[in-house]
Amino acid sequence: MASTVTHPTGRARSWWSRYWDAVLGRERSVATAEELDTSVSFAELVWAHYQRQEEVYAGAINGSPWEIEYRRRLKRFKQEHGDIIKDYWCRYQASAVALTAKPLPRRPGNLWRRDEIVRLHSVTDWRTAAVPEVTVSLHRWQTLAIKATEILRQATEHIVLEQVFVGVTRLLACVDQEPTEARATPKATEVAAQKRTAMLAQDEEQFQKTESYYARAGENSARIVYFRGMLNGAGLCAIVIAAVACTLWASGEWTDSSEELLASVALGALGAIVSVMTRMASSNGFNLDFEVGRKSIRRLGSLRPWIGATLALPIYLALKSNLLVGTVDNAGTYFYATIAFVAGFSERRAKVLLDGVGGGIAPTSKEPVEATSIPDGAAAAPK
């Protein structure tokens, strides 16, 4: 039988002590206050609010046990998620929805505006367990809230989350009825079902509008993030070009060819940025899958100037090797480097060319031929 070992409260245990207890199979009988999880989920807060609400309706106003517990959980919840800016609590069951906003510390590059984290918290299954069609609609709204939180920022995020909050609140208010109404007459049950169907139809229309707004906002946000990524990539490319130029200048290796090469690379990166900005001006000229995430879009944008600089390099080599004017008698390094790049850039076309060349060559070995499909009712002609 495993023995039980207790340790003085508040004394830090070394890694060797924890390892030795694990080896011997020991267990601590009493957890210290530092090891207890003091966080509060929204479901725990909703349950405490419901119990407090029952005590209030029973006549307890101040100092009731659940009043104290609810205030304790509410304080802890606000410390973790920020202030509750909007909330809705069901009357007849422990279900609710709330919007929280938690300010973030000011960043060095954004000192004039303080961002905040806005979250939608919802606990609805207790109330909607008997109404599956409403549960499905609620889960759609909740999924849209997750997307908006991850993709959008600032005003557009607030707008979408506000609309999601309204949609969830409308659904909860529709099903938040007294339990005795479930045992009403068949006529009343039918009327309630018709009202719920009409409400779900209106909810579907509102959801489509909110989702359409989210898609437009996501596309615009993705373009802004992509453009910022391009600026970051262009800045890093400029630093590399400047470092190379300073190194060549300090070592005495600076020549006219060096100036031409670096100028070509820099203008290639700039041309890539201008090309993207031109296509962004049209509605269908530049499309991004904004749901891949802001970090991925930013990283893809940072690669764009480097792609332009890389493509500018073989053009410079082609001009330097006189390839474009057709004189290849004195082929040098520039000529071969250009041809090698073009070959590597066109590797995906190699298979097409090989297939075209091999199409007229008869196979050397006999392979089984797949039988072609024969229409129904038709028979193969005898040989």
The helix-strand sequence is HHHEEEHHHHHHHH
Number of helices: 11
Distance between the termini: 85 Å
Mean of all residue-level pLDDT scores:
78
Radius of gyration: 34 Å
Helix content: 55-70%
> What overall geometry do the principal axes of the alpha carbons give?
elongated
State the total count of DSSP E strands: 3
- Major β-sheet annotation: 3 strands, antiparallel
Neighbour order of strands in the largest sheet: 1-2-3
Structural class: mainly alpha
Uncertain parts: 1-10, 26-33, 356-383
Strand content: 5-15%
Short summary of the structure?
The chain has 11 helices and 3 strands; from the N terminus they run αααβββαααααααα. The protein is mostly helical.
Fold and architecture overview:
The chain has 383 residues and is mostly helical. Among the domains are: 36-81; 226-355, no CATH class. The protein has helices at residues 15-23, 42-57, 65-81, 125-128, 132-151, 154-175, 186-251, 256-280, 294-320, 333-345, 350-358, and strands at residues 83-89, 96-103, 116-123. Strands 1-2-3 form a three-stranded antiparallel beta sheet, sandwiched between helices. Strand 1 (83-89) and strand 2 (96-103) form a beta hairpin. Helix 5 (132-151) packs parallel to helix 7 (186-251) and helix 7 runs antiparallel to helix 8 (256-280).
